[in-house]
Amino acid sequence: MHDFAPSFWAGVALHPVNPKAYVQTVMVFSAFVVPETAYAPQAIILAVLCLVTMMAATSLWGMGGNAIRLFVRDPRVMRFVAVAASAFMVASVGAALIL
Fold first, then answer.
1. H helix or E strand, kind and range, residue 84
2. Can you give the residue ranges of every domain in the chain?
3. Of 12, 21, 41, 51, whose CA is between 20 and 30 Å from 59?
4. What is the full DSSP assignment across 32-67?
5. Alpha-carbon distance 57 to 71, whole Å?
6. How far apart are CA 29 and CA 25, in angstroms?
């Protein structure tokens, strides 16, 4: 197992290919935009709320991963944790698409 931390810019480059971000955007805008009201103010408010929410969620996800890394030293256990977290993430996106 390698022991390197991805850079901030590597994380930024990952976001355009993150399917969860697209699912969230479609769901938020389709659920909360009122057609009879001016679009621009709604879009700005929703974009700001999404940005704040995504920043908080990403920060919590990163801090949680760092906490796990501090407590789990066995590479096999860490691999299991990484695969399980990935499976939960895929399942959550699948559930969002289905529901």
1. helix 75-98
2. 8-98
3. 41
4. H--TTS-HHHHHHHHHHHHHHHHHHHHHHHHHHHHH
5. 21
6. 6
**Residue 90 to residue 81: CA distance in whole angstroms:** 14
Q: Which amino acid would we find at residue 12?
A: V
| Phi, psi of 24, rounded to the nearest 5 degrees | -60, -45
Structure tokens of 1? Answer: 């197992």
The mean per-residue pLDDT over the stretch 6-24 comes to: 79
pTM of the model: 0.62
**pLDDT 10s digits, 45-83:** 999 998 898 889 888 988 988 888 888 889 899 899 889
